[in-house]
Amino acid sequence: MNNYETLSSLTKDELIDLIDIYSKNWLAMDGVWFQSVEKKLGMDEAMYHDAEAWRRFTVIEARRIKEFLKLGDNSGIDGLAKALRLRFYANINEDSIVISDNSLIYRALDCRVQTARKRKGMPLHPCKSVGIVEYSGFAKVIDSRFECECLSCYPDITDDSCCCIWKFTLHI
Hints:
Layout (H helix, E strand, L loop, with lengths): L2 H6 L3 H30 L1 H27 L6 H9 L10 E6 L2 E6 L3 H8 L8 H15 L3 E8 L10 E7 L2
Antiparallel strand pairs: 1-2, 2-4, 3-4
Helix pairs in contact: 2-3, 3-6
């Protein structure tokens, strides 16, 4: 039996469970390499490599999702909202999206990365700088007219009701 046959034999619920497993595995791998660099070379070096990885990965991820959704080059706020819902970790982190006029506010209500670091007694991941790279790059692939702004993210938390908040403004 090849991989296609194996996947084809699964029920819809089994496939959804498998997507959940794949998402958790990918996020675990992301954390494992980061923690390896952090332990050996320190947080600054780990953050440098994290930003470089996200600079490339977020574009790949956004292009594939954009193609999957058959979004046009200027798919706007609705396109970004759809694409954010299909990111590799969207099904394992709790989030919310609020759209108002020409902007979209994305809130990560729960973050598996920060939860895992807390559980292990590690300092929180200072993800703001990498988040700017990640979210800006993702949005610009979906629609080049987007500007991304961090409203709250560790270490600059301005709203402790969630893990982070990102604002995407569409400049028409």
